[in-house]
C-alpha cells in the first residue's frame, strides 16, 4: 500500500500540460508553447567552461554535503555585494535545485499539523510540498488591485497558534509582481511579532525590470534571523537541467538542512556546482543581457495583450510570465469543474496554443503565459489567443 500522504497531493498541472504538448508534437502537430517556465537561453559559455574543466580535472568525487567551498564563497560574496546581506559560509547550503532547497527547509522547520501561510496566487508546488511533510497549507486571498501582493492585515487575519511560516515569492510566479522595501518591512514586522518564519523564494530576483530589488533578509538582523532565502541558477543562468539551488539561513537552520541533505542525497552534482560557480564569477554580462531581452519580450507581449478584448492582466515587473484575467469570458465556456482548465484545453485543442490554467496557482479565473520564447512565438501565440476568444 502507498503512503497516505499521497492522498492529499495533486499531480502537477504544468507537467500535465507539457505531456499534452509532447503528445501533439509527436503526431507532427505544431504547438506554440506559452506554458513553459524555462529560460529560452543556454547556459553561458563561461559557466559551461568551469563545468568542463571540473570534469577534465576529475572533480567528480564526493564533496561536502552543503556544497563545495568555492561555490559557497561565491554565493556569500554575491549576497553581500548584490543583496546587501552578510552570511557566513556555514549559513549557505547548496542543493539539487531551489525545489530541493525548499523541501529541505520544510523538513527542517515544520512539524505535523503546523500551518504555513500561502498568499494566492502561489507557485504550483508550494501546497504539495507542505502536505508531503504533513503540515497544512493555509491559503490567503489577496487583492488584484494590489497586484496580488499580501498585506500585514491579510496575514494577521490568518494567524493561529499553529502558524509557523509564510511563503513570500518575490518576484512572483505567476504574476511577476515585486514587493517594495516598505511592503517587505511591514511583513517582517508582523512575522517578528508572531514568531513566524519567512521562506523568501527569490529564484527570479535577477529577472527584475525595476531599479531596486530588496531581499527580505537584508532589512535587519532580526529579519535575517527569521528568513530562509531560497535562490538558484535555473532562471538566472538558464541551468534548469543542472538542478542547482541554495538556501541562506541562520546557523542552526542551515546545520539542520545540511544534516537532512546528508542523509537523503549527500550533495548536489559537483559538476553542476562548478557551472554555478562560473555563472556567479564570470557571467554577469550574459545575465544582464538576458534580462534586457526578457524586458523587450515583455513589452512586446503587453503591447499585443492590451489590444485583446475581454482580457486584463497584472503588469509584470519581474520574472517572465503574464497572469491574465479571463473572467469576462466565463459565460462563453461550458465547464464542469474548472473554468481555466477547460479554457486552456480548448485553446490547445482548437488553436494549438499551450497556457497554464490559473487553478494551478489557486486562481481559476486566470491563465498564465510565459514569454520566455521567441518573439515569433509570442506574436503567433497571442494572436491565436485573440482568434480563439473571437470564436467564443
UniProtKB/TrEMBL annotation:
GO molecular function: pyridoxal phosphate binding; transaminase activity
InterPro entries: Aminotransferase_I/II_large, AspAT/PAT-like, NHTrfase_class1_PyrdxlP-BS, PyrdxlP-dep_Trfase, PyrdxlP-dep_Trfase_major, PyrdxlP-dep_Trfase_small
GO terms, biological process: amino acid metabolic process
Domain of life: Bacteria
Cross-referenced Gene3D superfamilies: Aspartate Aminotransferase, domain 1, Type I PLP-dependent aspartate aminotransferase-like (Major domain)
Keywords: Aminotransferase, Pyridoxal phosphate, Transferase
Residues annotated as domain Aminotransferase class I/classII large: 30-382
Necessary cofactors: pyridoxal 5'-phosphate
EC number(s) from the headed UniProt entry: 2.6.1.-
Family: Belongs to the class-I pyridoxal-phosphate-dependent aminotransferase family.
Protein name listed in UniProt: Aminotransferase
Annotated source species: Tepidibacter thalassicus DSM 15285
